[in-house]
Specification:
Blueprint lengths: L2 H21 L2 H22 L3 H9 L27 H18 L2 H14 L8 H12 L6 H12 L16 H25 L3 H5 L5 H18 L4 H19 L2 H6 L5 H12 L6 H20 L8 H22 L13 H6 L4 H7 L1
Helix pairs in contact: 1-2, 4-7, 4-11, 4-14, 5-6, 5-13, 8-10, 8-15, 11-13, 14-15
Length: about 375
């Protein structure tokens, strides 16, 4: 379609849209606005010409020679930056985050300690499932990607840890800032919706979303793009292997003979006791476990959401409501970790709950 015809469609459609929407009641208008926008995008794409032929005609190399500018097909430039990511890499980043939090809980180090104690005869287990599991780990040493490889992966994808950055690799330096900002924006969105439920006083206001979707979409898009750039190479394979190994480690720590040897009720008691005895203290197990669960769920949602600008507010609210609960849970746990104590909004009472004096609270704020 020519340039002039394309421009005519735009003008007529906008005029038709304005006239028809003005005639509709508020309830019906809200229901068809999204359909109008999608139809307009479809017409623009269909009315555009073939990009290759249009360029040939524009420079005069076509079969008809040089054409008038108004007769050259109008190009349709599609915006696809926000969707130009590889989902498998983003899913791997979500699982890697789960592994990172368990690494911070010293799960892998605890299993290594148990293997050594079993080999030296310092654990009173012999033929149970735990003993067999430790024997298999010692015999086959299944983990190809060791602690050094995991630390490099964490540094690349999240900029976590103190491992040296690989030369020439893309490091996601702003991940934690973006992740905290996204969690805060998503939590704030639902807090604003709660406020709107209280202050709504008219029918029109009831139809208008109070939360700021644009902020959530912007931060989510940036988060997806940054993770996509940093998760090339062996990240997918490493996450697949480390994730399976982590599952075996957690199952091993839950075996009855290992729990009995430490007089423990569950695997978390085993992790805490071994870390206290052999690794210089147990980390923040409760906080890290919740951050691993909620952080992975939010990252999965970010990976599978294209954050379309024209999304229906009610659909977005319904889709993101369970994710908002995970965001709130993640923030509540993050505030009480070592790196999250300076998080804005951490009160003296929260710092006091983990044993920090008010003097520390003022100094770090």
């Amino acid at each position: 379609m020519s340039y002039e015809n394309n421009e005519t469609i735009k003008r007529l459609w906008q005029r038709f849209w304005r006239d028809e929407l003005a005639k509709l009641p508020a309830d019906e208008r809200a229901a068809i606005e999204q359909q109008f926008e999608e139809r307009f995008e479809y017409l623009l794409e269909e009315s555009a010409g073939n990009g290759g032929n249009a360029f040939i005609d524009l420079i005069g190399f076509g079969s008809e020679g040089v054409k008038e500018f108004g007769d050259v097909p109008y190009p349709f430039l599609k915006a696809d930056f926000d969707t130009a990511v590889i989902p498998s890499q983003l899913h791997a980043a979500a699982e890697l985050y789960f592994c990172w939090q368990h690494d911070r809980m010293k799960v892998f180090a605890v299993v290594d300690i148990l293997r050594r104690l079993f080999q030296l005869g310092r654990m009173r287990i012999q033929r149970g499932p735990g003993a067999r599991g430790l024997y298999i780990l010692e015999k086959w040493k299944p983990l190809r990607y060791r602690s050094k490889d995991r630390m490099i992966a964490y540094r690349r994808v999240f900029n976590y840890g103190k491992a040296p950055a690989p030369a020439g690799a893309v490091i996601n330096k702003n991940f934690n800032y973006q992740f905290v900002a996204f969690m805060s924006a998503l939590a704030q969105y639902f807090r604003d919706l709660t406020i709107s439920d209280v202050i709504r006083g008219s029918r029109t206001l009831d139809q208008r979303p109070y939360g700021n979707i644009a902020t959530v979409q912007r931060l989510g898009t940036d988060l997806r793009y940054a993770m996509d750039r940093a998760t090339y190479g062996n990240i997918v394979a490493l996450t697949h292997e480390v994730g399976n190994y982590l599952k075996q480690c957690l199952d091993l720590l839950e075996t009855p003979d290992i729990k009995k040897s430490f007089d423990a009720n569950n695997k978390w008691d085993v992790i805490e006791m071994v870390a206290n005895r052999h690794l210089g203290g147990a980390p923040e197990l409760s906080h890290r476990a919740k951050m691993a669960e909620s952080g992975r769920r939010v990252l999965y949602w970010v990976a599978d959401n294209d954050f379309q600008t024209t999304v229906d507010p009610e659909s977005f609210k319904a889709e993101s409501r369970p994710i908002g609960q995970h965001a709130e849970a993640w923030i509540a746990a993050y505030r009480l970790t070592e790196e999250g104590r300076k998080f804005p909004g951490v009160t003296d009472n929260l710092r006091w709950s983990i044993g920090l004096p008010k003097r520390y609270a003022r100094a770090s704020s």
